[in-house]
Amino acid sequence: MSMNSQGRPTVAATAATSDLPDTFTGNRALQIEEALLFEVGRDDVTGVDLDEPAEFTPRLGKLARQQPIDLPGLSEPETMRHYVRLSQKNYSIDSGLYPLGSCTMKHNPRLNEKMARLPGIGDVHPLQPLSTVGGAVELMAELGRWLLEMTGMTSVALSPKAGAHGELCGMMAIKAAIAAKGETRNIVLVPESAHGTNPATAALIGFKVVTVPARADGTVDPEAVKALLSPDVAAIMLTNPNTCGLFERDVVEIAAAIHAAGAYFYCDGANFNAIVGKAKVGELGVDAMHINLHKTFSTPHGGGGPGAGPVVLSERLAAFAPLPFIRMEGNDPVLVESEAALKPGETPFGRMTAFHGQMGMFVRALSYMLSHGSDGLQQASEDAVLNANYVRAGLRDLMSQPSGDRTCMHEVLFDDTFLEGSGVSTLDFAKAMIDEGYHPMTMYFPLVVHGAMLIEPTESESKASLDLFIATLRDLVMKAKAGDLERFEQAPRYAPRRRLDETRAARSPKLKWEKPEPWAEAAAAE
Asked: Compositional bias (Basic and acidic residues) at which positions (predicted)?
């Protein structure tokens, strides 16, 4: 087997999927072709045996089901095989580098999982009497103390369930503070490069969104902010480091201008992983910031939850933290759950959720903090920035950077200029990465950059891992520039499913599975 110039084995042409013979089953060794549950399930099979119910009088009346429920069933072994096979088709942080920019897909230490399953933690219930969950309340208080120390803020709301939920919490605190002053400010400034949830959150609670134009490098010009200030401006929602992977160098001046106008500074904390132990947002002038525990403190990411997005608040907003919250009385944490328990000066804007937050995520995040310590958390941030710049340095001679060749923070942003004239699109390039065993980077975001490719390796990756990733992208770039269109236009070729006809899918979507006709009937119909 020959070696290419990057030191990786070159896949022999005979290994291409299209050159291999078909198998009877459709399987390819241990890559098993798995049908839909509706295709393999039967309505007469179940993983458990249920006795026929005794005679009873239905109470649903006309609402009672008239036809069988028609849900497919599998035996227990079939169920296990079905979902295990599906899970093997997933890409995850446990299977490889996950370079999604602005998402911080970092390793989830198994120690955290062990801690989250401890008796008294894994089985704690939100409806237990407070007298039985003193340890859980103390753990929440300790997590909050760490978050406040790292951010330099005054109070923390733990109940929000995710980043966007945390944004909503912070902006609702700002809205409550404005109302408490008898003001009617209704404009929120949002930079062009902001996460899409920022303007959506502001609009959701009745604010009018005004866009702040970005400079050529994607950062915000304080003069552009000042030009938009008026007595109607309630807040600015700014991400720092921003979504172009750059630190907002004028953040202190922007905060000062916002405060001078009587408005508030909301910071999107999605990229907090780049500055933990390096900069305290409270000292930068921030009034509210959500913290994604999955992005910065290694709790599991995605999958529909459970999530956690605590919000830290400055002294200007501390009184408006939602119920429930933890009050320290001496050295004792007290969980305040109702308005009846409030003290003078505590004016929460209401309640975000029924209960206190997601205990499993709190435990995982605190486990990560305690195992790293303050110096370890700082090193994680430094390593995240180092790794991103290592990727930048390894690709800058072949891939184009919209902000020029300048040091980035935790993620590096490329655009598609280097693909001009090659016939290869940003999407083609990303699909080819799948064939190489990598989940594509974030594409077409931020929107201020045409053909954006945003790469965030995080601190989890070793030099060897990054070297292989860089070599792979270099090989793809050189193949694109050499006109090897076949490698890109048909990609992915080795994934369980080939490329989707996205235009047809958008114009003629199939939103419901329909049982295919039997072969005999289909043949007769022809």
From this structure: 499-518
Sequence ranges of the chain with CATH classification 3.40.640.10: 133-358
* 435 φ/ψ angles, rounded to the nearest 5 degrees: -60, -30
- CATH fold for domain 380-501: Aspartate Aminotransferase, domain 1 (3.90.1150)
> What does pTM read for this prediction?
0.88
Cα gap 268→292, rounded to integer Å: 10
**Sequential DSSP letters for 203-250:** HHTTPEEEEEPBPTTSPBPHHHHHHH--TTEEEEEEESS-TTS---TT
**Nearest one of 337, 340, 342, 341 to 354, comparing CA atoms:** 337
Per-10-residue mean pLDDT of the chain, 526 residues long, equals 34 46 80 86 83 88 86 89 90 92 92 94 91 94 97 97 94 98 97 92 97 90 97 97 94 98 97 96 97 94 76 98 95 93 95 90 96 97 98 97 92 96 96 95 92 96 97 97 93 88 89 74 51
DSSP assignments along 129-176, one per residue = -GGG-HHHHHHHHHHHHHHHHHHT-SEEE----SHHHHHHHHHHHHHH
Residues 307, 321: Cα–Cα separation, whole Å: 19
- Domain(s) labelled CATH 3.90.1150.10 in the chain stretch across 380-501
Q: Round to whole Å and give the CA distance between 457 and 298.
A: 14
State phi, psi for 186 to the nearest 5 degrees.
-135, 15
Q: Using alpha carbons only, how large is the chain's radius of gyration in Å?
A: 27
**Which of 213, 195, 8, 206 lies closest to 102 in space, CA to CA?**
195
Q: Which residues pair with 220 in a beta bridge?
A: 214
Helices (DSSP H) in 396-497: which residue ranges? Answer: 426-435, 463-481, 486-489
- 252-287 burial code (b ≥16 CB/10 A, e <16): ebbbebbeebebbbbbbbbbbbbbbbebbbbebbbb
Q: What is the pLDDT of residue 519?
A: 58
* Residues shown for the chain: 526
Fold assignment, 133-358: Aspartate Aminotransferase; domain 2 (3.40.640)
Strands 264-268 and 233-239: parallel
Residue 323 bridge partners (DSSP): 351
Cβ neighbour number for residue 134 with a 10 Å cutoff: 12
Residue type, 350: G
